User: Fold these one by one.
Assistant:
Number 1:
Amino acid sequence: MDKSLFSRLYGPRGWMVVGALAVVAFIVFPLCNLAIPKDSLFHIPDYTVALLGKIMCYAMVALAMDLIWGYTGILSLGHGVFFALGGYAMGMYLMRQIGLDGVYHMPLPDFMVFLDWKTLPWYWNFTDHFWYAMLLVVLAPGLLAFIFGFFAFRSRIKGVYFSIITQAMTFAFMLLFFRNDTGFGGNNGFTDFKRILDIPIATSGMRMTLFVLSALVLIAMLLMARWIVTSKLGRVLTAIRDAESRVMFSGYNPVRYKLFIWTLSAVMCGIAGALYVPQVGIINPSEMSPANSIEIAIWVALGGRGSLVGAILGAGIVNGAKSWLTVAFPEYWLFFLGLLFILVTLFLPNGVMGLLGGLRKKIFMRSKEAQP
């Protein structure tokens, strides 16, 4: 295997081929699974489909974190709030779809009726329209990120100080959403969803549709992120990560670049949250907990900072292990997460992708030495 082959595999054409194959695979897979009888050994149950869809949503968040941390050098410990805001925007629409006695689009969601609310809050207006909810999915995290980033980056807040204030922001929003008088369900949040676009959610067809949609969005985000990091914009972002002062002296304004990628990263998290909620069936303030945002950084660190595929791989490894450990050893999950982060820091500073990259170089060198 020569070096040119590696160049083709990791070049633009190789990525486009991988994306096309992935799209075909994620279309063929659900069609085949729906055709297989449910009592068959080869049929994948709805629970597994929903779990895979949830992990893909987490992978989108890891991808967003890698753009801002791995390529721009800005460690955010507040991406959980952007994910949750997108989820709440979708949840507001789903709650408006819940009806009583078969009648949908009631004036008040059921939890507001329980809390004896008399009128719908102004910020709930138009949330019974799908298009408006999708607009909120993008605007809510996007505007928050833009406003927050504008003042933070203009003030040249960076490093550990930026990480601290992002975590403070997440904690503040979590406390706000825990309150019953904010109109977001308080501690319980939103749950018991019934329909989306007047189609029942709890059906194999809808679960598979959400799975396919999550896969396609993840592929689109991966290709978009790949285009960004290989463009001039990506080179400027990497330069900001490595030497921001030199970038400034070269005539570039780092604030604009950081604000753009920061806002884009937040929007990606919001879209992931919107796809996450109907597949999991619940959204509550615990999604905004600081621990969740720290866990997102661990996914990227495990997979490998500055590697888009590594971020997806890290999210898959951690959440796949979490799904198994929380069932088999629920009391030891947090210890495992802490141990994993320590081991990665000590022995895998470049993550799993760094390890695979080192093995790839060794294989290439050996094959080159073996050539006559």
Number 2:
Amino acid sequence: MIVRNGTGLKRGLRVFVVRNWGLILTVVVTEQAIVVISRYTRVLETDVFSTTAIGLIATVVGIFIVFRFNEAYQRWWEARTLWGALVNDSRSFAREVITLLTPDRVPNIGSNEDAAKLHRELVYRHLAYCNALRITLREQDSWDELAPFLAADELSDLQNYANKPTRLDHRQAERLAQVIGTDTAQQVLLMQLDSTLNGLYDIQGGCERIKNTAFPDEVRFISRGLVWLSAIAVPIAFLSADREIRAIEVVAVIVISLSFMVVEQLGASLKNPFENADNDTPMTALCRTIEIDLRQQLGETNVPPPMEPVASVLM
């Protein structure tokens, strides 16, 4: 995710040139071709290429691009909302584990030292769950990152499961069922914790839905085609009466064409918020935030620092 004020003039120009050099070259070549055609033929002396007609084309393109951008932004915002809910539910889960699973409420736990070990086990497994969800959504294979949070045998067993976050959440439920007894009051505690685990499944399912539901490819194809069509059509509208294109017109055409292309590309970037790109949901930073909060709830003081943006990008 690009941090606030992370897109300055230098970065903006670099992004424009790197991502849109093809469009810029196409617009310039097209303009020169139009000048040559207009000088030696009468092809462009028709109402089809009038300013009004091309203005209507630009309007249609703009409406379509805005529609695509809004749809893509909704996917991006939903992804960020889901991960915000994961942060809150993680804090709630740790609080419930630490404050409710105590020897006086659940005698099966044993001593206070046993309770502390249980709290650490459950909280650390939850940290593994959050990081496993991040790794899964980004289609990475860095499962060694879970080693600080899981026992070696559990990490090894985890490799046998296709959906590793699901397995970790399921293991949490198994562990809670082992510890909590059958007394009515204790069953109330289990129901409360189980409800929180179900909430985590809801968040995970929402993220998987965004990840696995492809944005309609026809929309991408049509929007990209319309943008390039407008890049070719717009210069025609700027032909002056003597069939010449002034310098200011060249700049105006490039700015207009780039505006369409930049918005279209931004929409293409936002529609997939789990691809480890600049506009990605900052899952690594959010996992670190969860780790800091939960480990401090355990009373630990040697916690890692928050993630810092690199080149104005927070991953």
Number 3:
Amino acid sequence: MPAATAPSETGSAAARSAPPATVMLSRVASSLYWMGRYLERAENIARLLDVNIQLLIDFGSIGDQGIKEHWIPVLRSAGDEELFFQFYPKADSAAVTEFMTFHRDNPNSVFNCVGAARENARQVRDQISMEMWEVLNEAHLFLQAKDAHQVWQDGPSAFYDQVKRFSHLFQGLADSTFSRTEGWEYIQFGKFLERADKTTRILDVKYHILLPRATDVGGAVDTAQWQAVLRSTSALEAYRRFYVTEILPRKVAEFLVLSDTFPRSLRFCLRQLDVSLGHMGGGQRPAGPAVDDFDRLRAGLERLTIHDIIAEGLHEYLHNAQAVVGRLATHIYDTFMHHPPVDLASEIRFHQQEQQQQQQGL
């Protein structure tokens, strides 16, 4: 499995013409970034699937159309709806969960995300702690085991809990054993970039797509579904401690977008991304249109209220936030992490010429 699917195949001229030492650093940065991002994605997908399986159980018996309407938004939140229907004729519980958990041709499946995180870790094995490597390797072996499907079928919730525990253990070990170098910032950048993207997608799908009419925004919505949104972002208990009220759509949106303290809110994630930007490239904060857009989005979050955002259109706001974060990811990759493929034939010819010149000089 390749180390990562790059956001862009074209890097900056500086990155492409950099000396070998800088290219090596860019490879390390890329692997650390994707290691952190892929494992965060695996955890998010595992939680999303677990919550929605439990939600269907709570709903009891529903028809085929209800099941389809339940799972399509889940596929959309992961950005995999189109790919899913290339392999399955309809979106039911068995097909969606298998596709998002084990499918080898789905790059966002839990199986592939953990495998990609482990492969990136292997490429920078000398840069991370032994404990971090062991956790990723154990997670990879857990999903590779012959009885993994059986464990999943016997108890999906226990299976997804194990995936989440691997991610939590890795993050705890990284926090305890990884030096606060520039490499740490790339891990954090990947993690919080992924969190910002997934939180906005999950909230957008529920708040906009699932509501039958725009006039229903802020109206009476099934509490169980809004609990599922909070559980999908590990926010239910934190929400209840903060508001100590019933679960209301506007309050859920406010918490997941504007919370100062919850580590998966959009505001919190953007603040952490801003911190990482200041420590990349030897402390030289990157510049460019993508960074300018990010700065405007982050500054807006510091002054806007949820009433302002909903009045402007929550769906439009979240969609724009996803686009801004995506452009920032591409820009940072092109600036600091892009490395061209090695032309082995040219490398061999270069070394042969060097050897000939050395022999002629003797």
Number 4:
Amino acid sequence: MPVKVRIPTPLRKLTNDQELVEVGPGTVGGAIAELQRQFPGIAERLIDEKGEVRRFVNVYVNEEDIRFLDNQATPLKDGDEISIIPAIAGG
């Protein structure tokens, strides 16, 4: 059973309008690399030049923020779900 990645609306133009994309188990960083292989250009929207998840992008594994887990080293197992949530600016 693959890992599901929930793609936010602003990034769906890069995934041919797919809301859910499947990747293999491994780590969050590996999942981002696999997304980049499937959909070139998506990683630069998620990762900054230092290789860190961008400040305005929140990534959750099974509803837990990876910043409170192991960031990109957070392990993924079959059936997990990753949600990519762009932060909304404003006040």
